[in-house]
Amino acid sequence: MPARLRLDPKQYFVVSAVALVALTLIVFTGAAVRVTGSGLGCPDWPNCYQNGRLVAESNSHAWIEFGNRLLSGFVAVAAIAAGLLAFLRVPFRRDLAILGVLLPIGVICQAVMGGLTVLYGLAPGWVMAHFGLSMLILVAAGTLAWRARPAFEEGEPPAADRTTARACWALFALGAVTIFAGTAATAAGPHAGGSGTGNIVKRFHFEGHDTLTWLVDRHGALASALGLLAIFVWWLARRRGADRELRVRLTRICLLMAVQGALGIVQYRTKLPSEIVWVHVCLAALLWVGIVLAAVQSGSPFRAAATAPAQPATSGARASAART
User: Fold this and answer.
1) To the nearest 5 percent, what fractions of the chain are helix, strand and coil?
2) Residues in CB range of 294: below 8 A, 6 or more apart
3) Is pLDDT larger for residue 282 or for residue 2?
């Protein structure tokens, strides 16, 4: 293989990190489409309009939706690069190749899911599935970025003992359930995604007029439990001598949880203004990425109990990953 077609571990880490950032940003723009009511700004897919026109017309809602589609193109390039270049990385690692291939597959599924979401008029079930798939792709992207670090190549030990790792993975599991409940609450709320274009979108109403309150109460209870668990995991990591980088990451998770809790209360009491809802969704995506990285950093929860926590690394690449 020609040397110019090969990537060293540091170069591939940059590729994986770019893919993770891109896949996080697309959640931000997707949330903007939703809260501005621009979900049907381009009422057809893959073209913007049924007359075959690809580019949006001169109105804000069409351009918000079309801009999200344009960013999707960059995301697709980043994901495909992460998948293909994993096979050109030297030394080749099978785990990175598998994780890398999952990214373009996930993006393709997202494109299809997004198209179906538009074609089915932003039905809440399709919108929830669309967002949930984004969170699953972030799991693969976060795991890939962490394992692609050059320091991982050197066979570094886990950042925490088995007990702390299990607590981190419990945080991951509860975080996933909490995000699902929040997505369901959004599916019953006023931000259906079609208000800006005058489209009427069905909402969840299985509890009648109390559906939104019922779902918000459940989401709030789960979020409170998640916050308490995050504090416990932070305390446990400190008490059991976990790696400093993991402790710093857990500190950031706890701070984000505090901000999210305050935002959740404010947005509910102020009748869910779109700007605050957008910030809430964006911070939820960042929080999820942090939880994913904390889980994979802590190591397998099923390993032997004798595994000792890692000593703080001084590698520049690992320091960069810790700031993700």
Assistant:
1) 70, 0, 30
2) 168, 171, 172, 233, 246, 249, 250, 253
3) 282
User: Domain map of the chain by residue range?
Assistant: 3-322
Residue 7's DSSP bridge partners are 89
The identity of residue 262, as a single letter, is A
The CA distance from 86 to 104, in Å, is 12
DSSP state of 210: G
pLDDT digits (tens, 9 = 90+) for 75-95: 999 999 999 999 999 999 999
Q: Residue 36's pLDDT is what?
A: 74
Would you state the structure tokens that stand for residue 199, as one six-digit string?
A: 């489209």
What tokens were used for 18? 């770019």
DSSP 33-78: HHHTT-TTSS-SSSSSSTTS--S--SSHHHHHHHHHHHHHHHHHHH
Q: Which two tokens stand for residue 209?
A: 């007029």
**Cα–chain center distance at 274:** 20
- DSSP string across 218-249: HHHHHHHHHHHHHHHHHHHHHHTT--HHHHHH
pTM score: 0.84
- Measured on CA atoms in the order 133, 130, 179, 288, is the torsion positive or negative? positive
How many other β-carbons are positioned within 10 Å of the β-carbon of residue 208? 7
